[in-house]
Design brief:
By secondary structure, the protein is α/β, with parallel strands linked by helices. The protein has 2 domains: 4-120 and 245-268, Rossmann fold (3-Layer(aba) Sandwich); 125-239, Dihydrodipicolinate Reductase, domain 2 (2-Layer Sandwich), CATH 3.30.360.10. Helices cover 41% and strands 25% of the residues. It has 10 helices and 12 strands. The strands form 2 sheets. It has a 6-stranded parallel β-sheet with strand order 3-2-1-4-5-6, with helices on both faces. Strand 11 (222-230) and strand 12 (233-236) form a beta hairpin. The longest helix is centred in the C-terminal third of the chain and has 19 residues, at 244-262.
């Protein structure tokens, strides 16, 4: 079976360090084109994969079967409907837009086109195994953290949109997605703290469980843990291994190729992205 020709929309650091090596490693996908608003950046990234490069999005679409977005949320929200109108299956980044209005418009515009969402931790074998274990026991509470120095000077993730909108919009989708996946649909959410430094989120789930999460992107180091509590005790997600990055890349690429070939959206699709954006919007002042 031929590899799916995927075009990467974006030529910045995240496209180069994750999307391109993920899709270019094969065997299910190949990088066929790179679109960049800065042509020189597109040329440089495309050259590493013998791919077509352009700063014209319509031209880019003519050289791929599907599109993987590695662009700021507002740019993704503007260009994804164009790709969908051309019939291209979409691998979308989170958040799917900068705000709820943009997310709603995007979801409506791409309806009927196969989509998949880049919630990277959900593709990890350890997290999938943990969710299976958690679903087999009664849960009364859960606690998670996503704390890092991603926004500190010198980090490739200290980009304008992230610094302007904060960690809630950037890593909030990861956190809320896992809390929801573990304990069921979130029916109430609130927060305390400073969006620029440290946030503590509290959730109540339809299951009756309560959850708490700590989020910051200005703390040196890295912590992304998850544990659940209930009458049968405490269950903790395994720590991330050194091999997880490569494993996650391979899984995302294989599952996106399946989405493209079958024409059916992933379980983690644009509507999941919209739901997470609704939760985040409920927290915004």
């Amino acid at each position: 079976m031929d590899a799916v020709r995927v075009g990467i929309a974006g030529a910045g650091p995240w496209a180069g360090m994750f999307h391109a090596p993920m899709l270019g490693a094969g065997p299910h996908t190949t990088v066929s084109a790179v679109y960049g608003r800065r042509r020189e950046a597109a040329d440089e990234l495309a050259g590493q994969y013998d791919a077509y490069s352009t700063d014209d999005f319509e031209d880019f679409l003519a050289h791929c079967d599907a599109v993987s977005f590695a662009l700021p949320p507002d740019v993704q929200a503007a260009l994804a409907p164009v790709a969908a109108a051309a019939g291209k299956p979409l691998l979308l980044e989170k958040p799917i837009a900068l705000d709820l209005d943009g997310a709603q418009e995007l979801a409506a515009a791409v309806e009927g086109v196969p989509t998949q969402l880049m919630l990277t931790r959900r593709y990890a074998r350890r997290i999938r195994g943990f969710l299976e274990q958690a679903h087999a026991v009664p849960i009364t509470g859960l606690r998670t953290s996503f704390v890092s120095g991603a926004f500190l000077p010198g980090s490739p993730f200290a980009t304008p949109w992230r610094l302007q909108h904060g960690a809630l919009l950037d890593v909030g989708p990861h956190v809320l997605d896992l809390m929801d996946a573990v304990a069921g649909r979130i029916e109430r959410i609130e927060y305390t703290g400073d969006p620029a430094t440290m946030l503590a989120l509290t959730t109540r789930h339809e299951s009756g469980a309560i959850g708490q999460a700590f989020i910051s992107s200005v703390v040196p180091g890295y912590l992304a843990d998850l544990e659940v509590f209930g009458p049968e005790g405490i269950l903790s997600a395994p720590d991330r291994s050194d091999e997880e990055r490569a494993e996650v890349m391979a899984t995302i690429a294989a599952e996106f190729a399946h989405v493209v070939r079958t024409g059916r959206s992933h379980e983690l699709d644009v509507h999941r992205g919209l739901y997470l954006q609704e939760l985040i919007a409920a927290l915004e002042p």
